[in-house]
Amino acid sequence: MIQVTALTRTYGGLRAVDDVTFAARPGRVTGFLGPNGAGKSTTMRVMVGLTPASSGSATVLGRKYADLPNPGREVGVLLDASAQHAGRTGRETLKVAARTMGLPMRRVDELLDLVSLTGTESERRVKNYSLGMRQRLGIATALLGDPEVLILDEPANGLDPAGIRWMRDLLTSFANKGGTVLLSSHLLHEIEVIADDLVVIGQGRIVAQGTKAELLESAGTLVRSAHVIELARALELDGIHTVPSGRDGLRVEADADQVGKVALAAGVPLTELRAAEGAGLEEMFLELTADTSREGAAA
Amino acid sequence: MSTTTATIDRVPAQVAPRTAPAPIPFTRLMTVELVKMFNTRAGFWLMMSMAGAAVIATASVILFAPDSAMTYDNFGAAIGVPMTLLLPVMAILSVTSEYSQRSGLTTFTLVPHRGRVIRAKAVVSMALGAVSIGVALAIGALGNVVGSAIAGVDTVWDISANQIAFLVLANVLNLLIGFMLGVLIRNSPGAIVGFVVYSFVLPTLSLVLGNFQQWWEDLRPWLDFNWAQGELYDGHLTATEWAQLGTSGSIWLVVPLIVGLVMVMRSEVK
Question: Is A89 within a domain?
C-alpha cells in the first residue's frame, strides 16, 4: 500500500509536483503515466525520501519511508537502472545490497538466476552492461529483500521484447500474491497490458486516475467498414461523435452495442466492431496531457 | 451469506501480515561501507597503490639512502608521504562515489538515514587510516631491519611512541580533510582537485602572503591549518601550538565539515 497525500515539491517558482494525491493498493499494479518532465520521477523520489517534499506526505505500508526499520525488506525500489557504480561487478552490487539488508548471500545467486544474468555476466563490471542488463540488475536489487511493495520507474526501458514479457509476468504474479506495484512508464502499451489502476500526471498535477476499466470506458469503440463515409454520416445523424481512424475505420464515442444498432439501422455492413482498447489509452493520454505536453495539442 | 463469502474470495490473496524486519544495526553499515571501499575497481587499485608505494619507498631508502640515513625515522617518512596523499583520496571517494557514480540512489534508499551512512563512512575511513599507518610503520620497521643489515650498520629505532601517536593524529586529520572535501563537494574529480588546492596551493599562497604582509605573518600560526599541522610531525606540541591547531582546524576543517554535512542531509540525491 502506498498513499500519497497532497504532495507538492517546488523548485524555485516551478511546481514540479503539485498537490498530488493517489493510492497504490495491494494486489494491484498501478500504472503511473505522464509525459516527459511531468513529475513522475520526482514523485517517486519523494516517496522514498531521496527528495524532500515541500508539503504533503507519502507513506508506504502505513509509515513514512524513513521510518521503515529495514526498507529493502519491505519496499523494492528501482528509480534509475543507470545509477549503479560502474566500477563494481553486478554480483558485488547485489552482495552490497544483500549485506545491507542482512540477507544470506545465497539470495544473490537466486536473484541473478531470476533476472537471467549468467554467472559470467555477473562477474563483469556494470560499466560494461547494456541498459537492459542494468535494468535486470536493478530489478534484482529491488526484489532481493522479498518486499511487499515495488516502486519502479521505467523498468521496461532498454529491455528486449522477451524481457518486457518476462517483466510483465513477474509484476503480475507479484501483484497476484498480494503485493503492491507502482510502476511508471511512457510505454503506453505496456501499462495498458499490465496495469489495473492508472494515475495520469501532467505538469505536476494529476489529470486522471481510476481503474483502467473506468478510464478506458470513455475511450469508445473502434469500428471498421468498407462504407465508412456512410457509417460516419449515420452516426453523426444520431448525434454520436466520430473520428477517422485509419483508411476504413472510425473511433466512436459510444459503446459497441449502440454503434452496432446504428449500423444495422443504416444498413451498413461492418468488418470490425470492438472496444477501442489499444489506441484508447494513447488517445486518452494525449488528450489528457495535451495542455501540458511539449508538442501542444496532439494531432 | 454466500454472497459475502464470494465477495471476500474475489479479493486478491491476502498475505499473512508480516513481522516487521529488525532495524539495520550500525555495525552492519560499517561492514558494508568497508566492503564498498574495496570492491570497486578504483578502491581496489587505491589500496594496491598504497601498499605498492610503501614497498617502493622502503626499497628506495635501502637502495639510494646513505648508510647514515638508514634510520626508522627516514623509513617512516618515506612511506608517510605517499600515505598522506592516498588516504585522503580514499576518504574522498568513499563519499563522492555515492554521488558521482550515483550509487547513492540505492544506498540512501536502503538506508534512508543519510547521517548514519555518512557516520559509518567516517568511522570506517578513520579506522582504515589508522590500520594503514600501522601497516606502513610495520613495513618501515621491516625495511629498517633489512636495510641496516644489508648496509652493515646498527639498526636505529629513532621514533618514539609519542611520535607515532602524533603521526597517527596528523594522518587522521589529513584523512578528515579529504572526508570534509568529499562531503562538501560531493563530486569525485572536484573533491580531489579541491584536495590538491587545499594541501598544496593554499599553503604556498599563505607563505607568499606572509612574506609581503606582516599582519598575515603574525596571524599565520593561528589561521594556517597546514602550518599548524606541520608541528605535529615534530612529535610534540606546546599548549600554544595545540591552541593554534584547534583554531585553524575549526576554520578549515570543522566549519566546512558542518556545512557539508548539512548539505548532505538536505540535498536531493539524484
Answer: yes
Total domains, chain A: 2
Distance separating alpha carbons of residues A5 and A55, to the nearest angstrom: 9
CA distance A84 to A129: 11
Contacts of A122 (CB under 8 A, 6+ apart): A89, A90, A91, A94, A112
Phi, psi of A244, rounded to the nearest 5 degrees: -60, 140
| Contact predicate B110/A101, CB 8 Å | yes
The ipTM value here is 0.87
Helix (H, G, I), strand (E, B) or coil at B103: coil
Query: Buried b / exposed e across A65-97, counting CB within 10 Å, b at 16+?
Result: beebebbbbbbbbbbbbebbbbbbbbbbbbbbb
The pTM is what? 0.85
Do residues A250 and A207 share a domain? no
Read off the pLDDT band of A217 (50, 70, 90): low
- Identify whether residues A200 and A243 lie together within a single domain: no
Q: Does A136 touch chain B (CB under 8 A)?
A: no
Q: Do the chains contact at B108 and A49, CB–CB below 8 Å?
A: yes
- Extents of the domains making up chain B: 24-265
Q: Specify the 3-state DSSP secondary structure of B45.
A: helix
Interface test with B, best of A75, A93, A96 (most B CBs within 10 A): A96
Instruction: Tally A–B CB contacts below 8 A.
Output: 117
* Same domain (yes/no): A44, A189: yes
Task: Work out the end-to-end distance of chain A between its first and last CA atoms, rounded to an integer number of angstroms.
Answer: 37
Rounded to whole angstroms, how far apart are CA atoms B144 and B71? 6
Q: pLDDT at residue A298 above 70?
A: no
DSSP category for residue A224? E
- Type and span of the H or E element at A199: strand A197-202
User: Does residue A295 belong to any structural domain of this protein?
Assistant: no
Judge contact between A221 and A240, C-beta under 8 A: no
pLDDT digits (tens, 9 = 90+) for B36-91: 999 999 999 998 898 889 889 989 988 888 888 888 888 888 888 888 889 999 99
Is A83 in the B-facing interface, judged by CB distances under 8 Å? yes
Residues A97 and A130 in one domain: yes
Query: A181 is in which domain, residue-wise?
Result: 2-211
**Inter-CA distances, A97 with A44, A67, A88, A138, B260, Å:** 20, 19, 12, 11, 26
Provide the grid cell at A66.
Answer: 524513513
Domain presence at residue A298: no
